[in-house]
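## retry 2 of 3
previous attempt timed out at serialization; input unchanged, resubmitting
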Amino acid sequence: MKTALIAAATSLLVFSAVAVGLYWYQERPMSASPPSVTTGVSSPQASFAFTLLEEPRPLPAVDFIDGDGRTMTLADFRGKVVLLNIWATWCVPCREEMPTLDRLQAELGGPEFQVVALSIDRAGLDIVRAFYDETGIKHLAMYLDSSGKASRELGTVGLPTTLLVDREGRELGRLVGPAEWDSPEVVAFIRGHLERKTGSRVLPRTARTASPRLPDAQSLAAAHIATGQTSAPQ
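## retry succeeded, writing output
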């Protein structure tokens, strides 16, 4: 009888321990295993979280000034792929990523591509110029929207925000947060878009030779008359 009681008590203790263990497992804080959060390329191990749109989106006709105080719009960059970076000198992540944007412009900038770093500093061009001198920015031109109107019209919700704009001035996508813009991953991403035409079709490498000459408007009109067409071809 005594042996049976001891066995029963032991079984009860084992059952209680298992029950407590299961309860702790189910009720443990989920933060015990930290989630993986993607915030852009802030380190070689991070992922590049650029959100691309399914279709290019027209952008508002925002205006700003350049380093000489001349008024400009995004239309002035038509024909180029543009990386439009909205930033400010008081934004710490902006300051940290600016040298990488400068190096990206040095590597890819030219007739086909340009980084447009648009500051929203209310203090004006002088503070932007001082930051460029302090940081050693040599390849980025200065652009300023001290009113903040351009960033509002572009739907900027935080700094930095970077938009990829196609050759027709349409937004292809954006990244909210900093990135390591001169990393191999990002450079390859930008190069991929430089190889595209205005649509989403990618030119095959074997076909990227001299572009065929497009007929002018007069030639097209003559062709339509000759074929009896009354509307533009689809």
